[in-house]
Design goal:
InterPro entries: Transposase_put_HTH. By secondary structure, this protein is an alpha+beta fold. Helix content is 41%, strand content 19%. The relative contact order is 0.11.
Length: 272
């Protein structure tokens, strides 16, 4: 039976740099394949097959000087990016997703899929890298089939592991007893209400997180305001103590704040 779990990983600085470079290579292959697919269709009205025609072209491109740098990275991960693009096209034509677009290095989430991998008691091993320290909170027994390495917007790294545990899949139930069936109704005040009358309250995680963030943001604004005031008092005191008279240019600060390129810097300087 196939099992899956996601583990937190802690790459070293060198491993982190390699991961970002590997994501860049995967993104490059995706964009190259998408460009070739669109270019041939637009200029020659030919729809190239991503798997049988475009993937070999990218493999040949690695032999050129321009794309020789792709050889430094996991070739299976690069091929997987083309397969994922093929899935994206299929999902588009089946009406399940939008048209595939070019990937940007500023994307919200980065990931790449690799095979020929293994998992130890406190590490994961992937091609082209030394073992990466990991928090393996669940036992992985059986043959590890693949690992997907991911980074989220918060800067945390994860390894999504897929393995075959060797156990037979559970057979579907042949008979369902009425007293063991429960109906549920989802809601906002209560997350769900069961047919037996039991209610599961809605924890409202987002609302509580926003409340915490509002307090933290208010404290941060207070610290900034105090720091500005303190700095202005120190500067003004020094100028008054060192000089008998002061002359300053007259600026229309309100008008200058209309310049969106300068507004934030002017406000942060607290001219007046």
């Amino acid at each position: 039976m196939l099992r899956a779990a996601k583990f937190r990983i802690y790459p070293t600085a060198a491993q982190e740099a390699f991961l970002w470079a590997q994501w860049g290579a995967v993104r490059k292959c995706w964009n190259m394949a998408l460009f070739l697919k669109k270019h041939y269709y637009r200029t020659r009205c030919v729809s190239l097959d991503l798997i049988h025609e475009i993937k070999p072209l990218i493999a040949r491109a690695k032999k050129s000087k321009k794309y020789a740098w792709l050889r430094e990275y996991d070739s299976m991960a690069l091929q997987e990016s083309v397969r994922n693009l093929n899935k994206g096209y299929r999902a588009f034509f089946e009406g399940r997703a939008g048209f595939p677009h070019y990937k940007s290095r500023r994307g919200p989430q980065l990931s790449y899929h690799c095979t020929n991998v293994s998992v130890g008691p406190n590490y994961v091993r992937v091609p082209k890298m030394e073992p990466i320290k990991a928090r393996i909170h669940r036992e992985v027994v059986g043959k590890v089939k693949s690992i997907t390495l991911e980074a989220d917007a918060a800067g945390d790294y994860y390894a999504a592991v897929l393995w075959e545990d060797g156990l037979a899949e559970k057979e579907p139930l042949k008979e369902i007893y009425e007293d063991q069936v429960i109906g549920i109704d989802v809601g906002i005040k209560d997350l769900l209400t069961e047919s037996n009358g039991r209610k599961e309250p809605n924890p409202r995680h987002l609302k509580h997180a926003r409340k915490v963030l509002r307090r933290r943001l208010a404290r941060a604004h207070k610290l900034v305001a105090n720091a500005r005031t303190d700095n202005l008092h120190k500067v003004s005191s020094r100028l008054v103590n060192e000089s008998q008279a002061l002359a300053a240019e007259s600026l229309r600060i309100i008008n200058m704040l209309k310049n969106h390129h300068l507004a934030e810097s002017i406000a942060d300087a607290a001219w007046g």
